[in-house]
Amino acid sequence: MTVLHTFAPMAAELPPNTVLSSVRSDLADNHVAAPKGVNQEKLAAIVAEARSEGIPLSVVVVPGNPGHDSSLRDLATEVGKSTDGTVAVFSDDWVGTYSDSISRVRLEWAEDVAKYKGNHPEEAVQAFVDRLEQPEGVPWSVITAVLLTLTALVIAGLYVVKARRGPDADTQVAASTDRADVGSAK
C-alpha cells in the first residue's frame, strides 16, 4: 500500500490566500486577475495586444512571493484547465505558466526575462509577451537535419574511397613491399 502513496501525484499547492473561483471570475472580463493596487487596465491592454498577435493569454498577479515558485505553476495549471490558451501567473519575482498551445521550453524561455521585476507586473508581463512574440532562436530541427545529412555524406564518401582502393590496391601494396624487402636483402 505504501507503494501507491509513493507514486501518487501531489495535489496542487496554490499560493497563500488564493481563491481559485475568485481568480476565474476576475479573468472573465478582460483575461486579467490582479489585486488592488495593480494597474489592471495596463495589463489588460498588454493581454489584448498579445491576443491580437495570436497568443491566447490570460494573466494572474499574486501579491508578494509564495513559499515555493512551483505554486505559481500549479495555479496556472488549475486556471488553465478551465481556460483555453496560455495562463501566466506573476508574483514579485517569479512566474509560473501553463499552455495548451505553446511548448514548455518556449514558455520557460519567456519566463526567464519576466522574473525578478519586483513589484512591477506590467514590466514583467510585457517582457513575457515580447519574448513569446519573438521568432524562435535556433532552428534545432534544421541544424539536426543538416548534421545528419553531412554525416551520411561523409560515411558514403569514405565507403566510395574504400571501395576504389579495393582488394587489388591491397595486393599491389603487399607486392611492392615484398619487392622492397627483396631489394634490401641483396
Keywords:
186 residues; alpha/beta; Diaminopimelate Epimerase, Chain A, domain 1; 2 domains; four-stranded mixed sheet; 7 helices; 4 strands
Task: Explain what you see.
The protein is an alpha/beta fold and 186 residues long. The chain folds into two domains: 2-133, Diaminopimelate Epimerase, Chain A, domain 1 (Roll), CATH 3.10.310; 138-186. It is built from seven helices and four strands, in the order ααβαβαββααα. The chain has a four-stranded mixed sheet, sandwiched between helices. Helix 3 links the parallel strand 1 and strand 2 (57-61). Helix 3 runs parallel beside helix 6 and helix 5 (104-114) packs antiparallel against helix 6. The model has no long low-confidence stretch (mean pLDDT 85). Keywords: Membrane, Transmembrane, Transmembrane helix. InterPro entries: Rv1476-like.
In short:
This is TPM domain-containing protein. The chain is an alpha/beta fold and 186 residues long. The chain has helices at 2-7, 20-30, 40-52, 70-80, 104-114, 121-133, 140-185; strands at 32-33, 57-61, 86-90, 95-99.
Radius of gyration: 30 Å
First CA to last CA: what distance?
88 Å
Q: Please give the largest β-sheet.
A: 4 strands, mixed
pLDDT < 50 stretches: none
Give the H and E element order: HHEHEHEEHHH
Mind telling me which CATH architecture of the largest domain this is?
A: Roll
Beta strands, count: 4
The dominant shape is elongated
Main-sheet strand order equals 1-2-3-4
Which CATH first-tier class of the largest domain would you pick?
Answer: Alpha Beta
Strand content: 5-15%
Q: Give the class from helix and strand content and strand pairing.
A: alpha/beta
Mean pLDDT: 85
What percent of residues adopt helix (DSSP H or I)? Answer: 55-70%
SS summary, helix count: 7
Q: Would you give the CATH topology of the largest domain? A: Diaminopimelate Epimerase, Chain A, domain 1
User: Any idea how many domains?
Assistant: 2
Pfam families: Rv1476
InterPro entries: Rv1476-like (IPR046498)
Protein name: TPM domain-containing protein
Organism: Nocardia rhizosphaerihabitans
